[in-house]
Amino acid sequence: MERLRGMYDVLPSEVWIWQRMEKIVSQVFQSYSFQEIRFPVVEETALFTTAIGEATDVVEKEMFSFQSRSGLPISLRPEGTAGCVRAVIQNDLCNRGTIQKLWYQGPIFRYERPQKGRNRQFTQYGAEIFNVSSPQADAELILMSARLWKKIGLPNITLEINSLGTGQARLEYREVLITYFKSHIDQLDKDALSRLETNPLRILDSKNPKMQEIVQNAPVLSDYLDEESMDHFEQLKSILDECGIKYVVNQKLVRGLDYYSRTVFEWITSDLGSQGTICGGGRYDSLVELQGGKPTPAVGFAMGLDRIIELIKDLNLWQPDNQVDAYMVIDKEIHMKHINKISEKIRSALPNLNLLINQNPSSFKAQFKKADKLSADFAIIIGEHEIKNESITLKSLNDKDFGQKEMKFDEFVNTLNQYK
RNA sequence: GCGGCCGUAGUUCAGUUGGUAGAGCCCAGGAUUGUGAUUCCUGUUGUCGCGGGUUCGAGCCCCGUCGGCCGCCCCA
After folding, report:
1. Which residue lies nearest B31, CA-to-C1' measured?
2. CA–C1' nearest nucleotide, residue A278
């Protein structure tokens, strides 16, 4: 039996990266007063098709969809926002305009062709703000993500932002675009033709060199933005300027989910090949209503932990902590019952000490070698001598001045307490 | 979903015109009677991704399949 395609195991040798990352992210989110919310990995398929949009790639070909035993079409979540919004509505978290700042974390599933930085199961951390329509919320999310990158130590990442305007402005622009592309229909490639009716905005994203000219000369979205959206965008930019966040306005940044309006943004790295986006998000002021809730402005982002961890590994940004604080070196002649008794006593007195006991004792030399390999700070030596004296010998493996001392239990505990 | 490259011990790889497999690292033990580097010695592991075909004979050739990587598409 083998792992399914696009899935992966996180092995003990690298799980520390995940754990440290989880700690950092949740700590930063909490420092902005976001609260964690947890919701299912499986939802009705209809939730995703209405939220994300029928004509998107995610819905058209990337969902893990199947039927429940009752025949209901259900899907593994291909993104987090739809489920989060569903939970907010169903539990009435936003009644009477309550501001909610929520974060979530967990596995996301998309049936795509795997590649570096792209798996079929991957982990997203997301943050959403409900009931704040001002660009203050958009800005806070961007500032919070910027703080995260700094804390993680990510180099070479850039922020791209754009405004899609209100739904209505977008509709208007859409018509203009369709008219424009139809007048150049002979120059469109296959991909563009199929998008012409479903999602013409994404034709602008085409990387086909033959399409560049027609794309370059296409009408620009910003010319069709409504007054309010333009003002919203300008305010956002001025906050970012004031806080020293650098960004690039990318007029062609559209994003593949239909629910976005006004602000959209992406954080991009050049160190991961063609999978450059490590975090993306935007405003979705009409989604809550679309899902059956009261009109509620909202904005959020999601970041791909897998890609960020890939970066940390590739660029060697982090170093692991010692897995073992102390390694117990044992004379193999001693009965294990003495060893267990002593080690249990140590664990009660020093609960934070990571103590590894050699359960297959060989020569002292081999055991010290092992302790050294694990880069333990201390060796705890139990031999016949120590058993007879009811003592413990403690040896520092990285402090020569400390050397090696035989001591009674209380002194031993006090000594290690100073260290840990 | 489309195009290209690849798949040999835990890992990185070698394997010459087809004659049934090796090296480094890692791991374990040891180099005299309770001590960490380096060095030295010893040792373990492979359905050569899987299935089929060609051949007297295939890790090497052919087909299929699964998986990985790269590009496109798209996205986190």
Report:
1. A365
2. B76
Per-residue pLDDT tens over the stretch A318-343: 888 888 899 999 988 888 888 999 99
Q: How far is the CA of A38 from the C1' of B72 (A)?
A: 36
| Nearest-angstrom CA–CA distance, A32 and A44 | 32
**The nucleotide closest to A255 (CA, C1' atoms):** B75
**A5 Cβ nearer than 7 Å to chain B strand:** yes
Q: Which nucleotide is nearest to A310 (CA to C1')?
A: B76
Q: Is the ipTM of this complex over 0.90?
A: no
Residue A381 CB burial class (10 angstroms; 0-12, 13-18, ≥19):
buried
String of DSSP letters for A276-323: -EEEEEEE-TTHHHHTTS----EEEEEEEHHHHHHHHHHTT---PPPS
* Separation of A190 CA and B1 C1' (Å): 14
Q: Which domains does chain A have, with CATH numbers?
A: 12-166+226-314 (3.30.930.10), 326-419 (3.40.50.800)
Mean pLDDT of A75-103: 95
How do residues A198-242 score in pLDDT, each as one tens digit? 778 878 777 666 777 788 788 888 888 999 999 999 999 999 999
Decide: CB of A398 under 7 A of nucleic strand B.
yes
CB A215 within 8 A of CB A203: yes
